[in-house]
Design brief:
seven-stranded mixed β-sheet; alpha/beta; about 25% helix
Length: about 850
Amino acid sequence: MQNSATPTHCPYCALQCGMNLTPAADGTVEVSERVDFPVNRGALCGKGRTAPAVLSSRVRLTSPLVRSEGTLVPASWDEALDRIAGALSRTRAEHGPDAVGVFGGGGLTNEKAYSLGKFARVVLGTSQIDYNGRFCMSSAAAAGIKAFGLDRGLPFPLEDIPKTGCVILVGSNLAETMPPSLRFLTELKDNGGKLVVVDPRRTRTAEQADLHLAPRPGTDLALALGLLHLVIAEGRTDEEYIAERTTGWEDARAAAMAHWPEYVERITGVSVPQLRQAVRMFCEPEHAMVLTARGPEQQSKGTDTVGAWINLCLATGRAGRPLSGYGCLTGQGNGQGGREHGQKADQLPGYRKLTDPEARRHVAEVWGVDPDSLPGPGRSAYELLDALGTDIRSLLLMGSNPVVSAPRAAHIEERLKSLDFLAVCDVVLSETAALADVVLPVTQWAEETGTTTNLEGRVLLRRQAVTPPAGVRSDLEVMHELAARLGGERALEKGFPTDPEEVFEELRRASAGGPADYSGITYRRLAEENGVFWPCPAPAEHPGDGPTTQGSAAGRPAVGGDAGGVMGDPARASGDPEGVTGEVRDVTGDPAGATGVAQDATGDTARVRDGVRDTSAAAGVRDGVRDVTGDPAGATGDTEGLASGLRDVTGAAEDCEDAVFDALPDDPARDDGFSQAVPAGVHPGTPRLFLDRFATEDGRARFVPVAHRAIAEEPDDEYPLLLTTGRVVAQYQSGAQTRRVDELNAAAPSPFVELHPRLAARLGASEGDPVAVVSRRGRAVAPARITTAIRPDTVFMPFHWPGEGRANTLTNPALDPTSRMPEFKACAVRVEAVRP
């Protein structure tokens, strides 16, 4: 690769922040700001800034490994691939195709996720495929499909958030999980909007709220129902909207009325006055949003919980209107795209149902196989892992580390060990890879080109910036070689190309006409337009494209608004950077850490080093985006904070709400460098969904009646407390990558147990003392972190670490009956002091 800056995207969370990568003379890779991408406008958190550290051969795999006499030793690619093919063939011959399992990941590109689902069903013939994204957004996805007929995390761009009147943020700590996105909430408040945060802990995000509601873990469903009850009782429903755009209101209304405020207070611990205050904040503005994340979703009733928050939006006329509605904050880097194109147990590309005969016919035609040859739905993620060593004898795993990330993790670790054969494709030797019989070293984000789909539904092109080390191959190459070995030339004829653009072209055809229609998206468009929002059908006459059902004859998507859901301006798929040219381009998750020198999550004040920064601008960018911090004043060296430049990210006046989607002659989104005008006859994509109709047969949203029920495991005398889990700013997911970055480990070196001072006093524990958290599934030990930011009846552990501090040793695999989501967020525990 040439030593020039390559515009690309971060490998971590679903923001998919833009960045530039430049190979340096010493072999390292430098990160510099990429101000043309509207999601982060150049700002990066510590994880993004240090992401190239994992490219180093010092920490990543560079050779295949095979197990010999109990030890993993280097091997050639041919030996490793032959071993995998031989083992999978034997398992299929001896036990049948469903004895082979496939487990994918929400970090795989769209091309990889698509190919993995195809490989499992066409080459292996197995129904046993799912992925770790099941543990992230599946409850919100299920609820969205029930209510709206479609699942896309956010039905509007992030740029809409600052222009709404109120946001209720449920179970999300954006300041630590997605630091660059916190600026949208800061701008919301600068514009006079209100922020309500629902979280049992007073997190860095909750500290920014106008109102913080701290319910008992697992009671979010009752809380939402209590708010809806008050909306009804106070006459705040939008009856005209309900009559014109919804069905099922009477049953949902009756269910909510059974949850009166005092009853909800007893369940949740949130006082009646706070409930009434939240309703006023949400209902009084013209526009309002509810955004959920893992807090309400990772429960055994997560689908119903999200459904209750959607009902609140529907009853108040919020969903499907500009600057309003419900959205899910997708977590993993390609958590959105990863659940759209076939690596889920029940799914075919384009977000089609595997049980739909027409979907099977369409995809089978693209793949060149008989529809009847495609297996039916298989087990969900936890159920698949739980069946290892019994029904499932061999497993091919890509991009996941369930030894750390799965619930009841000690049990899952034992199931992995009981397999006849385990093959893992990964960048590093994760805790799961260390158990494998064969480990294949594969390329990672900066070493390959591919597409991802961020939390907005914006499909992005992540470009290769560096050459991978010798001995490393891509996952696409792995599937190509295994297909050749397992199915011969006939399998290769079905198409397992190694070129990602070629894979994407096939994905376009397979997705055409499906809910997640990518058929009008090309690599060239992604490069020129800085991403395209799905659905984006191709013109019906386009050669090679299948039928499309999302748009009318005029090309207007049924689930969007005028001209792609942007109310008459197809170019406005992104915000205005307000001429950002400065140099502060780092994010601190610490509200106190905002300074003229950007400080990241680790506390390191060294600036991002690059060769392309514009150093002519004064320190602390004026009249534009300066830095994203937890500080509501946005202090970055500009004494006016964010107020001078971020009142309205489109450049329109503060009172722009009524005109925000108008095509103004001087609209800066037309020439801001974020995107290019879309040619006539080409679908512009759909930044905003549901403005005309919902994606149901009759175009109406569905109220789903739900009622409060207890979590699967309530506290008792033996286990009197509740455990909830989450993330810290300097680590990511199972930590397989971030724990290999020195700078991040310096900031967050180990797990901890967060507990209230009253609980600590009863235990006789002081700050830093080791304490044991015990559930019915196991025991974890970590230092105590004592804080009043948590409820006295609750303890918190981050889940990034293996070993004795592994939080997921404790968590409950009780499953949501619809989404099959495990109950990560609430289980009964006791805490014990660990004596010397």
